[in-house]
Amino acid sequence: MASYNAERLIAASIDSVIGQTLKDWELIIVDDASIDATVDVIADAQRRDHRIRLVAQDTNRGPAHARNVALDRASGELIAFIDSDDIWYPEKTVKQVAVMNRHRADIAYTAYKRRLDGEQGGTLVTVPERVTYRTMLRRNYIACSTAMVRRSTCGEARMPEIPLRADHGYWLALLRDGSRSAIGIREPLMWYRLHRDSLSANKLVAARYSWKLLREVERFGLAKSLWLFSGYAFEALKLRLVASTR
């Protein structure tokens, strides 16, 4: 878990990890030099549960860097990600571990419910049963807080240190050579809490970093980047239309 100025929401995210029906876990929280009371909230959680570890950074380096620090510190064979404002369903990890072991998958991800601050209910975001490098180029089907990866096969890959879409770049890096499998669980197992002032809530900013990912991380030429970006724009519009009708 990467955290930055998350004092209002992080306690619920931490509690959703503590409340997992799977009990064999460690939670590594890398705080990215918060200037609010986030670290105090984490310290209180540590007093309640010894499985929580805090890594407090002196300077703000962005969420991708924080996640990479957590990847370096993690000791488990299966590594899951959760943002400091999202919430796992209690059975999320136990169901995911079972699916990963049954299919010997390298990456697993789930459907989830998406909710904007102040909204009642939520919108179901479905996922395909399988994704590949090619399908992931046109849309990121793997929400970071739903993902679990296998350390022994995913190796030393790390997230590109860009402010947004870093997780998408990470999945692309893992899937690029075709040697790893990614399997989806179509049951929603996570609440994705979106805020009006967050980077991901700003569609223009999100689009800019999707373009940056294609051009500067994947290093595609202009023509291919335009083609793939058009697919991204279409999928984003389709998702928005579906959400507006529910």
Q: How would you characterize the overall build of this protein?
A:
The chain is of the alpha/beta class. It contains nine helices and nine strands. The strands form two sheets. Strands 4, 5, 6, 7, 8 and 9 form a six-stranded mixed sheet that branches. A three-stranded parallel sheet has the order 1-2-3, sandwiched between helices. β1, α1 and β2 form a beta-alpha-beta unit. The C terminus is likely disordered.
How many strand segments? 9
How widely separated are the two ends?
Answer: 30 Å
Molecular shape: globular
Helix- and strand-based class? alpha/beta
What fraction strand?
A: 15-25%
> Count the helices. How many?
9
Pattern of helices and strands: EHEHEHEEHEEHEHHEHH
Give me the secondary-structure topology:
Layout: E1 2-3, H1 10-18, E2 27-31, H2 38-48, E3 52-56, H3 63-73, E4 78-80, E5 87-88, H4 92-103, E6 107-116, E7 123-125, H5 133-138, E8 148-150, H6 151-154, H7 166-175, E9 182-194, H8 203-217, H9 222-244
Parallel strand pairs: 1-2, 2-3, 6-9
Antiparallel strand pairs: 4-8, 5-9, 6-7, 6-8
Helix pairs in contact: 1-2, 8-9
Q: What's this entry about, in short?
A:
Helices cover 41% and strands 19% of the residues. The chain is of the alpha/beta class.
